[in-house]
Amino acid sequence: MTDTRTDDETVLLVGTRKGLWIGRSDAARQDWDLTGPHHDMEEVYSCLVDTRGERPRLLVGASSSWVGPQVRRSDDLGATWAETPGGAVRFPDDVDASVERVWQLAAGSAPGVVWAGTEPGAVFRSTDGGESFALERALWEHPHRSSWGAGYGGQAFHTLLPHPDDPSSLMAAISTGGVYRTDDDGASWAPSNQGVRADFLPEGQQYPAYGQCVHKVARHPARPDRVFLQNHGGVYRSDDGGASWTSIAAGLPTDFGFPVVVHPHEPDTVFVFPLGGGEEGMGRYAPDARPLVWRSRDAGGTWEPLGQGLPERAYVGVMRDAMCTDDHDVAGLYVGTRAGSVWASVDGGGSWTTLVSDLPDVLVVRAARIPAAVSP
Q: Which UniProt keywords are given for this protein, alphabetically ordered (predicted)?
């Protein structure tokens, strides 16, 4: 497929432990202009390129050791930034908790709606494009909450998947707690983990209703009932919107990893980055220190490694939000590493180049096509 919109622009956000970098390129995505660090010395766990309005809006969840977390926004692709006084995402005064980090920002399926997932585990909703947020109380007050644990990186709702056709439906995932879903606009929430294994639990108790350590969940908007999940041990697919899950890990070198990404135009094409090097497969780097993106074009039935242009040897890990696609006709794929490199492919993973290296630890990457008519 040839991308005919040659005047369009590509925007790439790279969030790190010490600020945000913004890359801009044309539709060919061969030459990049990179600026940064924006929000210097702040942890950037979440980013969003919101293209729903007349002009694209960048949203960034940054956390400062001095002033705490904040959602910042830019309507000119990062030239200037605005923020909500006192912080956009805050617990109400009657809740004895404080937001440590904003782990996820996701555009809702209703105009102006933006979702935020935080540490500690909570979900917030904005109806004004990310300028202010309100706590989803039914989830915060869920009877399961007292049993949710903290993953190695902390307890957080790290995945928020609004249903593309139903604004009242949202899927959320927390480490550790599993997947939860609402179908009544947040009035109630139910666990959605049937078939997902929690291998850290005793034998005979490894398929609980909730309590799994889910790492990431993804789906394609054209086929919302098909959902893919990367677990802490296990790769799964659901064909009923998360009501039940089936393993699709056969053919992968390991079933451990963090990201899972669906191709923007092919609902059956999914990418993962398996980890498990070192003795007994416990290393948080690729098997044999050979970084490879693995692709399935049949919804997890078979897998193939993609590594042309990637380092032959690199002891690097990739975090759950550090892999993404853009939405060009010929999709680009981007991978950020904990060693500060960002690898890019403009042919769906067939070949790779190093877009940038020697950044701080990469936590999140997000990319989008910006139509020329609205690009600042």
A: Glycosidase, Hydrolase
DSSP β-ladder status, 223-231 and 214-220: antiparallel
- Beta-carbon contacts of 87 under 8 Å, excluding residues fewer than 6 positions away, are 68, 69, 70, 71, 99
Structure tokens at 102: 């904003």
| Domains of the chain with CATH codes | 9-370 (2.130.10.10)
36 closest CA partner among 338, 355, 270 = 355
345: DSSP letter: E
User: What is the DSSP code string of 206-242?
Assistant: SS-SS-B-EEEEEEETTEEEEEEEEEBS-EEEESSTT
The dihedrals phi and psi of 139, each to the nearest 5 degrees, come to: -80, -40
DSSP 182-195: ESSTTS--EE--TT
Backbone angles phi, psi at 279, to 5 degrees: -65, 135
Tens of pLDDT along 48-88?
Answer: 999 998 899 999 999 998 889 999 999 999 999 999 998 99
First to last CA, the chain: 27
**CB atoms closer than 10 angstroms to residue 235:** 28
pLDDT of residue 1: 44
